[in-house]
Amino acid sequence: MNAYIIVGIVLVLWTLGGLYRRRKNRNKIICVVESSCTGCRRCVKRCTHHVLEAVKNEAGVRVVVKYPDKCTACGDCLSKCKFNALKLIERTN
User: Fold this and answer.
1) Rounded to the nearest 10 degrees, how much is the dihedral formed by the CA atoms of 52, 72, 29, 55?
2) How far apart are CA 44 and CA 64, in angstroms?
3) What does the pLDDT look like over 24-79, one tens digit per residue?
4) CA of 58: how far to CAs of 36, 42, 54, 70, in Å?
């Protein structure tokens, strides 16, 4: 019985945390810091909304924000980037 209560509390807190994060980042969007990006593509693989894309240029492979309107600022790609090449910025109209 106690295990069900604990699991229920954990699920409620997890859901509320997700709603808070979504509301807090509603006006934000992901931005790529070109000088820090190594083109490892970890963020591209992690992005479930398919916002990021790797492109080749004369400097090598770099990640760009291909579909900014799909970005929910969930931060999943931020957690995968080991080079601090991604940051959240305010969304502009």
Assistant:
1) 0
2) 9
3) 667 888 999 988 888 899 999 999 889 999 988 777 888 888 998 888 888 889 88
4) 16, 21, 13, 28
Q: Where along the chain do its domains lie?
A: 2-90
Q: In angstroms, rounded to a whole number, what is the distance separating the alpha carbons of residues 32 and 42?
A: 13
Rounded to an integer, what is the distance from CA 33 to the centroid of its chain?
Answer: 14
Q: What 3-state class would DSSP assign to 90?
A: strand
According to CATH, the topology of domain 2-90 is: Alpha-Beta Plaits (3.30.70)
Helix, strand, or coil (residue 71): coil
| Long-range contacts, stretch 36-42, CB < 8 angstroms, 24+ apart | 36/83, 36/84, 36/85, 37/62, 37/63, 37/83, 37/85, 38/83, 38/85, 39/63, 40/82, 40/83, 42/80, 42/81, 42/82
